[in-house]
Every structure is written in C-alpha cells, then in structure tokens.
Amino acid sequence: MTAPYPLQAFAPERSAPLILALPKGRILAECGELLERAGIRPAPDYADEASRRLRFPTDHAELDVIRVRSFDVATFVAFGAAQLGICGADVLMEFDYSEIYAPLDLGIGHCRLSVAEKKETAGSDDPNRWSQVRVATKYPNIARRYYAARGIQAEVVTLNGSMELAPSLGLARVIVDLVATGNTLKANGLVETAVIAPITSRLIVNRTALKTEPELIGAWIARFRAALGETG
Q: What CATH number does residue 192 fall under?
C-alpha cells in the first residue's frame, strides 16, 4: 500500500534513521498488517522470532525498526533511543513516563488487565473489607495503586511470568495480569474477580523528538492515523 503522501513533503532528510520500537511476541504479528497499511515494510526477518537480529531496515531509508521486549518499548522511547514505538496501554500505566506522548490507540492487542484468584477462595470474603493482600504480578506499580485506591495495602511479589501458579502454591492470594481469553486462568483453577482496565496497543512518541522534529515525527503519526482510517 502506498502512503497517502510522501514523507519528504513534511521534512528534510535526517542524518540518521528514526527508530520505531516494536514489541516481541503476540502483538508483533498484529503489527504486520498495520505497518503495511502505513506503507512501512521492514526486512522480512523482523517478524521471525528465530532471527538473532534486533534492528531491521525498512523500505524507507529514514526509518529502522527494532524488536524488543514489550515492557522495554516504553523505556527505549522514553529515553530517546527510539523516537516512536508501539506498546500496550498496560506498559504505559505501569511506567507512567512523562517523556512519552501516546497520540493514537491502534486498536490491536485487545485484552484486559485483571485481578484473579483461586476459584475456591473467590467470593469467600468481601475484598472491600481487606486491610492487606499479597499480590503476584509483573505490574507492581499498577497493583499498588489499584489496591491503595481501595484502602488496601498490597504486598507485591514481582514475577515475570507463570503468575497463575502463585495462588495454588501459596505465594500470593491474588494475581494481577493480562487476560485475553481466560483459558490459562481456567486451566490453572483461577477466576477473574475484577477488571482493572481494558488494554489495547498505542503508538507512542518521545516528546523531545516531537518538539525538535515536529514535521518529521508528525508525518509518521499522520501515516499511522491514515492507516487507521482517521483524519485530522
């Protein structure tokens, strides 16, 4: 697909390519169609998880893509190592970087950030009466804020995966994690007890880059906006 307007119409050439950070894993596959609609074609192996390369050229000399862990996309953009990125709203909620501007909801990566616990204990007592709770999660900041807003002190056990094991092994009463189908929870004897937030992926931009190169960065934002069928 050809972009609706040439990038050079907005800004002069840059001495080094802009960097677009993309997340490894499930969302990377969903990014493919979106990038195509935006007129961005990275080197074919960018979507190959077996490829050892992490930086890939595109068919635009002024843009490269990098493939990093989903949690790291926001960090690369916040610190200016990448000027643009695609990451889930969960990551933005967890880190809350002031250096990041998120102009577009890309409508991909649909899931929800939820609280879950063992089926046997769910509903056995009223969470509104809890004074404290132990939570297993890779979202310690979100978990603490969520429970603090309810007057509950959260003791957070930070895990990077296999959260579903924590309740059955006595590591934590509840977990806070992303849920798509709920099948993994069910397979491990857990049920959702609350939804903290619906989650989709966002286009994110480094604020300093947007201020110093507004025409260039703005042109890429416009490409993604056009790919979504939006105007203005």
A: 3.40.190.10
